[in-house]
Amino acid sequence: MDKVSSDCPYPGCFFCVMKEGNPSKRRASVLKFFRELPCQDDDGQVLPISGLWNTAMAHPNDPEFIELGIFECMAALIWKGLKNRRWLSHDQNIYIPYYAAHIIGSYTMNMEEFAESAVHAGVIPPLVELLRGRLTWVEQRVAVRALGHLATYASTFPAIASNGEILELSIQLAMSSLEIVYSHFYQYVDRRLSYHCDLLTRGMGGVEMESRKAEEWASQLQCWSLQLINCFAFKHEFLPTICKPEFLIKLPGMWGGLVNENSPAGIGLLRTICHQKLGRGPVASCPGIIDALCNIARSSDDWQYMAIDCLLWLLQDPNTCHKVIDKVVPVLVDLAEITTLGDHKKLGDSIVSVLQECIQSQGSGRSSISSRTKEQIEDILNSKQRLKWEKNMPKEDLHIKQAAALVVKLEGNSLFSSGNISGAASKYSEALSLCPMRSRKERVVLYSNRAQCHLLLQQPLTAISDATRALCLHKPVNRHAKSLWRRAQANDMLGLAKESLLDAILFINECSQSNDPDLSLRQNKVPDYAERLVKKQMRAAWLFREAAVKHGGVHNQGDGGDMYGPETDDSEWETASESDIGNDGRDDMGDDDDGDWNNDERKDYDKPSMKDIKHGYNVQLAEEEP
């Protein structure tokens, strides 16, 4: 480190060191730099730290800096920031603890041997101090990320677990993170710390971008806390600490939101808990959690399969089966004909096997089942038996059954058009009993049509059941546009904002890819009725909604602000105008048979409000006029 660039004002400049052509000299200089940096008080220290942050992000598997002592250097810098507030407030040193913790997390996210080096370098104690909130939520975010990586590996988890505070702090942070970010940053625009704004936007955006990124970072803070807790949940000795009712009940509501949809968040932790016998008891004892799991299982959530796994494990456990069976069985019956869901193959067969075990366990006296639940299980088992019988039936007989089902369906359409909704629903049920089990496309239409009848009859639970069955039968799964829309409306009626939002967004995506003229988006514009529902549910499912209700709305300078911040963030949906929708705001969104049935089914959709439907908008399900 004897030679530096002649025009560089900083002795021992890291960037000049990195230009050294001799590898041995460069390594010796970097080693010296890492050892000396925490002891220096020169200006401009944030520059090499930010450069190291970029390097760690770009090359997290490169061992060079690990071997030269970067972890020891970063740990020392965090301690310095915690203990020497005068140094922390000088120049731009306020950024250094954030970058140091981020660097530790980046270098430990892929390589177990790097994680071992980090633990030996003593990074855990200063990271715990950041996790405790000794600085701000911004540093908490990168601290929990780094600790989560260290907890992932078998060789370093004991070092994390030996610190008794980490699990408790992570649980508290998971429950309070959204409120912390809202009240400490999002709510008061004129009080935002400048270095927070710079880190969030990299100096590239204004207030709106700061708010968007704050929501994303708040979600990450919560999700990374849950990921750290999840590492503890694999060990049964930590489950009593995790499985406290006040924490468990909040888990289903902890989701990544639209800003962090790749994280399983609360449902991922619940799945880990339910996988273990010691965890299933507390979950089964909380009816609110079972209700939430049922809602997620009958949704288009990316983590639907995790909720299904939880329900299956709870049902298979003799100690929890009797507590959940009456709520869980109706949901699993709706899902019994699903084929593949993500990497889960033959998921429907697994569901049927578990349901069959329930019947058998009742026969052996191990559990009791209500008559209604038993009837539902027997119905699905009979359907499976019916499918086997149909495989041996002559094709002519199957064609006769299919034709008979078509006739009854047409009678249902006629009743629907005349306003006899209840009669139409009965006819669709009759048609389903006649329709061959292997005629999946036709059964999709019948279930979807019956779902619409239940919507008009203000029976949202039954509508969700039928729409879910249609979506399970459809190929690909969860991609039948009209059933998505009907379930979105039904979930809206029940106040299930997140589930309604996900179905509505997926409905719009399906419309954008559809060749059906009734479904395709006109001029790539979102239909008016879908736009309204999405806006409504985005506000209702907003990550900061609970915090905003508790602490009040967002305040700009000299301005009381609006309670719900995302109102200005909905511009991406503001693409449809009234002129794009025909029939006084009602779009013609029919049900195509897209199978052997030759008559198109069409439906004029209303606004997603039962009040509008009740007041007589002419909602059509029937095919074209004769």
Automatic annotation (TrEMBL):
It holds the Pfam family ARM_7. Residues 599-615 have a biased composition (Basic and acidic residues). InterPro entries: ARM-like (IPR011989), ARM-type_fold (IPR016024), ARM_7 (IPR058868), TPR-like_helical_dom_sf (IPR011990). Residues 554-626 are annotated as: Disordered. SUPFAM superfamilies: ARM repeat, TPR-like. Residues 7-244 form the ARM repeat N-terminal plant domain. Residues 567-577, 589-598 have a biased composition (Acidic residues). Coiled coil: none annotated. It comes from the Eukaryota. PANTHER family: ARM-REPEAT/TETRATRICOPEPTIDE REPEAT (TPR)-LIKE PROTEIN, ARM-REPEAT_TETRATRICOPEPTIDE REPEAT (TPR)-LIKE PROTEIN. This is ARM repeat N-terminal plant domain-containing protein. It comes from Phaseolus coccineus.
